[in-house]
Amino acid sequence: MVSIDRFFGISATGSSISKEVRAGVTTFLAMSYIIFVNPQILSQAIQFSGTDVNATAELLSATVMAAAFGSIFMGIFSKYPIAVAPGMGLNAYFVFAVVLGSGATWQTALGAVFVSGIVFLMLSLTGFREAVINAIPLTIKRSIATGIGLFLAMIGMTSSGLIVSKESTVVGLGNLNSASVSMMLFGLLMTIVLTIRKIPGALLISMLGVSSICIVFKLPVYNGKVFEGDVSHIISSPVWPGNLIGSLDLNGALSWSMSGVVLTFLFVAFFDTAGTLIGLSEKAKFVDSEGRIARSGRVFIADAFSIVVGAFLGTSTTTAYVESAAGIEEGGKTGFVAVVVGLLFLLSLFFWPLASMIPSAATAPALILLGAMMMESVSKIAWDDFSESIPAFLTIVSIPLTWSISTGIAFGVISYVLIRLMTKRYKELNPVMLGLVIILGVKIIWS
Questions:
Q1: Which of 309, 317, 318, 319 is nearest to 245 (CA)?
Q2: Which contacts (CB < 8 Å, 24+ apart) does range 104-108 have?
Q3: Positions of E strands within 260-322
Q4: Which residues partner with 85 through β-bridges?
Q5: Which of 435, 307, 255, 363 has the alpha carbon at shortest distance from 32?
Q6: Model pTM?
Q7: How many domains are there within the chain?
Q8: What's the confidence (pLDDT) of residue 446?
Q9: Domain range for residue 311?
Q10: Which residues of the chain fall short of a pLDDT of 50?
């Protein structure tokens, strides 16, 4: 324990091993849905290709292995409490745009993810990604943190059914009488009370409490059904993803027709990770007075290498998870949090029925409360200066409304630069920012 404390500098940050472990468990529970959601989405690509593979079972193992490696490597290499797993949105793009949309095989799509990861790694090793992060103005960084907070709240509200899609008004209030929404509201109240009373592990207690109630009273909160597992048998042998590992098609991925796909994977992962890092660092107080983030280069290298390994294992692009904010709120300050998350992912290979007991109604309250807590950064924005406040506002609202961190960054950076160019405040800009505008502008037009 002493060596762990010394390596991660746990005591030096004012934390403790027990607090870091609790934070890791909380983050894992908040993002454990990916264990089941990612295989369900990616299996459609394999089935479309007509490949005889035990898709869902093998993809579950590949997802868990990629998340375990990415989180552990991130924790050890960067020493940040940021967990890594296959990203939502990117997995949907992988399936519906690349495979089902363009007709590419899932092996070729995996090859495209692998190639984008290699390019990521090269950019990270040269320090390019770190230079981009440092070039983004502090106002935009703070607004990214706030936008991610709203994004987290939106994820929690939609996953629990509190907010639903409506044709006439785009979104609207869900059915408050449904079991999922009722339990989410109960869990939210419990989480708020425990947090205000400063009870250690408030988020974790709420998640486990709501999950237990749902199972005991057989509430239909698991995709509209009651828990169908056997709570007396929570151990199950994992399935080795032998048909997925190393199955990527690099020749197909390097063809001209796939160049746009590779660039899309590259762009979205680049700016999603950048936005997540900025938001979490702002929340964890890792940003200095000039807006710089210590060891950000190591975060990018770890993220890029995780993409390469994840593609080799057989899953779509991995990325830093915004749900890491749950562990940070629990007091997690070092990379040991991410290591704990990774180890729990490995354990879930054998105890995956236990992870399936956590419904969205249990994790949603934590995400909503985290959204509220991340509003703190908004108070540091100069709202009386339109040249600062307008780009900040566009960043904040664009992230949840477009369901994309990278799009929010694009709106914020482009508006920030254009305002300064049109008001002849050229000295406030730098070459990196001007280059970003071109790249981000192409991205918005392209998408």
A1: 309
A2: 104/252, 104/258, 104/261, 105/49, 105/249, 105/252, 106/42, 106/45, 106/46, 106/48, 106/49, 106/51, 107/49, 107/247, 107/248, 107/249, 107/252, 108/248, 108/249, 108/252, 108/253, 108/258
A3: 318-320
A4: 319
A5: 363
A6: 0.72
A7: 1
A8: 67
A9: 2-446
A10: none
